[in-house]
């Protein structure tokens, strides 16, 4: 076997019992069987880079130069990857993208926000805002899973929010300012968690583009990054200044202060102690992306992998793409429906027994479905082999 031991050899069968139904020939197996939609595959080169620097980074102060240099490389690397215009800045902090929902509520949404909701994660941000006692009732524009919905213009909102890629359903939505929103001074706030680094974007169409590193950036969770326009930076500073005035009902703790996070980011550090190894993993990944051609290269690579899955599903007698609108199909998270003659759970279990992991559909969606992460770290040739393995398993179950 290559670097993908079958599950019984690494103890995973304690959680996922062996069924002894299908053993896929080694010749069919991908070189790397990790296809998670997050956490996603971490490349060997990232681990080797971390091992070579462990004495200067791990177990040292995050406020000293070696770690601050890593943070600086991330910020400059992201600015290069996204071609940030003058005035845009990169901020970071602890807590992951879900923590940023609270930061946006505390520091960016002034009175009222409109949300596009078309899956679990786009819904969670809207729910976070709905629960904030100092924000007016939110406006929700919703569509069914497998489609997307951009908010309509509303005169009474100051922020428009939606997800570039809905991780739960494999839907990619366009990023463009809502007509009329710029004139009213509203911010465009985009969740880029499973899109950033994989799907292209004109960053000038957003004021805030936030994400965590456990998807395309091949690192672990627990951090958030945000690309901020001058308007977003000014909005956060103004809201936070007003919150300090007597009688204000808005409470902004330091952990949820975007201005505090940005101030620390400019010093190449975070407010509180981060995972230094995570920063190192992300720094190496960003350098790899930029060295290979930047966003144009990562986009093409993810598109190639996704196309292999979609075209396979369209040819298949038992599978079909979940997202019917081809223009809305994600090139980072691919969702494939399995017809009722076959159990997706059985397919997923058989794949896992052969070292091919994390192909399950999003649990709350409740469909007979596979979900495959095709982020830049995933080799397109491994995606091709994955389709062959699925066919092999289905023929024998």
TrEMBL record:
InterPro entries the UniProt entry points to: Aminotrans_V_dom, Pser_aminoTfrase, Pser_aminoTfrase_mycobac, PyrdxlP-dep_Trfase, PyrdxlP-dep_Trfase_major, PyrdxlP-dep_Trfase_small
Main subcellular location of this protein, as a coarse class: cytoplasm
Domain Aminotransferase class V as annotated: residue spans: 154-361
Coiled coil found in the keyword field: no
GO biological process, one term: pyridoxine biosynthetic process
Cofactor mode of binding and number, as noted: Binds 1 pyridoxal phosphate per subunit.
Amino-acid positions noted as binding L-glutamate in the UniProt annotation, renumbered to this chain: 63
A GO molecular-function annotation: L-serine-pyruvate transaminase activity
A Pfam family hit: Aminotran_5
Residues involved in pyridoxal 5'-phosphate binding: 97-98, 121, 167, 191, 214, 272-273
Keywords: Amino-acid biosynthesis, Aminotransferase, Cytoplasm, Pyridoxal phosphate, Pyridoxine biosynthesis, Serine biosynthesis, Transferase
Catalyzed reactions: 4-(phosphooxy)-L-threonine + 2-oxoglutarate = (R)-3-hydroxy-2-oxo-4-phosphooxybutanoate + L-glutamate; O-phospho-L-serine + 2-oxoglutarate = 3-phosphooxypyruvate + L-glutamate
EC number: 2.6.1.52
Cofactors required: pyridoxal 5'-phosphate
GO cellular component terms listed in the entry, alphabetical order: cytoplasm
Modification N6-(pyridoxal phosphate)lysine, positions: 215
Recorded family membership: Belongs to the class-V pyridoxal-phosphate-dependent aminotransferase family. SerC subfamily.
Subunit structure and binding partners: Homodimer.
Biological role: Catalyzes the reversible conversion of 3-phosphohydroxypyruvate to phosphoserine and of 3-hydroxy-2-oxo-4-phosphonooxybutanoate to phosphohydroxythreonine.
Record's protein name: Phosphoserine aminotransferase
Organism: Bifidobacterium psychraerophilum
